[in-house]
Each structure stands twice: as structure tokens, then as C-alpha cells.
Design goal:
Elements lengths: L8 E3 L3 E2 L7 E2 L1 E4 L7 H8 L4 E3 L2 E5 L8 E6 L7 H9 L4 E6 L4 H14 L10 H8 L6 E8 L2 E10 L3 E9 L8 H15 L4 E7 L16 E4 L2 E4 L3
Length: 236
């Protein structure tokens, strides 16, 4: 990495893993006191890093390498029959791209989503500060995709615009519309948006083979994984 000499990386304190039982998780994160910018972020994301708020991190567990950074090479992606059905099912939605800033409407939807999906974890009962720290960052090129049904906001997909592609940060949606597969649809739409911008990849964050919460990422084909410091096609 060209910027590695300029960056200091720190290891987090071990804490219970959110995805695999009886394991401790450790992250390597870029110095939070350094002035981060998009050039550095572009370089780090190509090396398997990800962001949460303004923090840039990558799993660094001494006894575990289960978290694998994955991305979709969008120009090689061909929509499956199931994906085409999901797109048709949501063809009545109006999609708008909004700049990155706090909105009460977004936060209210986010809180409903978190409390329906993660009510027993550390994300439960978020307040406005939690939401802001997680999704909004003042130095990133971040886009908020709004999905509306008859003017009612039912989903928001947050993604960063990097020099090689879009990076899917987080998607949240109305639990009453779970039958629409809105999380799946948001990724399919981001594949489309990445192609429109003539970029190569949609970064999906981390995939864990034995974690059911992460299994959905494996449905996208082809899928590349960052293994042994290089991107390779992830085979079955």
C-alpha cells in the first residue's frame, strides 16, 4: 500500500464476536486521530478495509480468518431469474439519490428496522447520535438511496462512492415490507448504479462462511474475495 508508511494502525481490545459463538474479535483500524481523506480510503478499501462512521477497519483476529472481504465485479454479473423477479416486484418504487446528511425520516426508519432485527444486540434502541456515528462521515463521498412507495419512505441504502466502485455501507427498511426482499433489491440496484457510473466493483463488506446472517452475500455471482493480499474469484 502506497500510504502505509503514512498510516499508523492499532488493534482493538478483544471482545465477544458478534457473528461466531465462543470467539473473540479484534480489528485493525487506521489511526482515528489522522485526517482521513478519500484518496487514502480508496487505497484501503482495495486492501479489504471497510468503514463504520469515520473509522476504517479490517478484522485482525489472531486465531481466526473467517471474515473475508468480498466484492461483486459488476460488469461480469448476470441477473438470475430470482433477481429479475425481485426487480419486477419492486418496479413500483421511486428511487432517489440524496446527499449525506442527517434526516429525521431516515432515523425513524432506521430505529424501526434495528429494533425489529437486532433488538437483542448492541445496536438495539439506537439514538440519533448512534445513527450519526455509524452512517454519516464528513470526509467521504457518501450517497443515500431512498426507496419510496407512494411517497412513503420504505428503505434507505447507504453507500460510498470510491474510485473503483460503490461500497455498500448499510441498508435498512420498513419491517412491514419484508416480503419485497428490499435488502436484496438494494444490492441489485447498487449493481446497476455501479455500472451506470462505469465503475468495476460493488464492495459488500465481510462474508463469513458459517454465519447465517452473512449467507446472503454468497448468492451474488461472480463474487471476488480478498485472500492472501489479492482479490480472487470465490469458488464453491
Amino acid at each position: 500500500m502506497n500510504d502505509q508508511a503514512k498510516l499508523n494502525f492499532f488493534a482493538s481490545t478483544p471482545e465477544p464476536c458478534s457473528y461466531l459463538e465462543n470467539r473473540k474479535s479484534v480489528s485493525a483500524f487506521a489511526n482515528p486521530h489522522m485526517d482521513m481523506d478519500m484518496n487514502t480510503y480508496n487505497e484501503l478499501i482495495r486492501h479489504g478495509f471497510r468503514r463504520s462512521g469515520g473509522y476504517i477497519y479490517r478484522p485482525h483476529c489472531p486465531q481466526c480468518q473467517e471474515c473475508i472481504s468480498v466484492r461483486i465485479p459488476v460488469k461480469a454479473h448476470r441477473y438470475s431469474r430470482n433477481e429479475k423477479r425481485v426487480i419486477r416486484r419492486n418496479s413500483d418504487l421511486r428511487i432517489s439519490i440524496m446527499p449525506s446528511r442527517y434526516r429525521d425520516e431516515h432515523f425513524d426508519l432506521y430505529r424501526r428496522y434495528i429494533n425489529s432485527r437486532h433488538d437483542d444486540g448492541s445496536m438495539a434502541n439506537p439514538n440519533k447520535s448512534d445513527y450519526h456515528r455509524f452512517l454519516i462521515c464528513d470526509w467521504t463521498d457518501t450517497l443515500f438511496y431512498e426507496y419510496r412507495l407512494n411517497r412513503i419512505l420504505i428503505a434507505v441504502a447507504v453507500c460510498d462512492l470510491t474510485d473503483t466502485g460503490l461500497s455498500a455501507v448499510y441498508t435498512f427498511f420498513d419491517p412491514d415490507h419484508a416480503d419485497r426482499s428490499l435488502g436484496h433489491f438494494a444490492i441489485l440496484n447498487q449493481i446497476h448504479e455501479t455500472r451506470l457510473r462505469d465503475l468495476d466493483y460493488l464492495y459488500l463488506g465481510y462474508w463469513i462462511r458459517n454465519c447465517s446472517k452473512m449467507s446472503y452475500k454468497r448468492r451474488y455471482r461472480p463474487l471476488e474475495a480478498y485472500l492472501r493480499d489479492q482479490w480472487v474469484i470465490l469458488n464453491d
